[in-house]
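Appendix B: complex inputs.
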Amino acid sequence: MMMTGDWIDVGALGEIPLRGARTIKMGAGGEEIAIFHTSGGKVYALVNRCPHKQGPLSQGIVHGDAVACPLHNWRISLATGEALGEDEGCVPTIPVRVDAGRVLISRIAMLTTLAAA
Ligand code: FES
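Resulting structure:
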């Protein structure tokens, strides 16, 4: 992991399987961030805690731009972190971008998110 300016390099996109995720630990409390890679090639970063009962979203199944929580199958939007359908709740998301095959997450947003978590 490398910090340069406002973005943190968290690894190569190729290390994240399509329709899968990998996790990184961030902040003093070691909060996990899940980085998702969708079949459409999009990348998203969310705090790795389901808004229902803290299930590890990174272990869920990715369908399109949503992930099904492995514990009770809530579907969470990867773009907004919000529960879909009739379920209610939201998990923080973190801006992410890909540059030259590297995945970068917003340092400021990550620190702000973790401070509020
Ligand atoms: S903890 Fe995710 S659906 Fe229950």
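The chain has one domain: 2-116.
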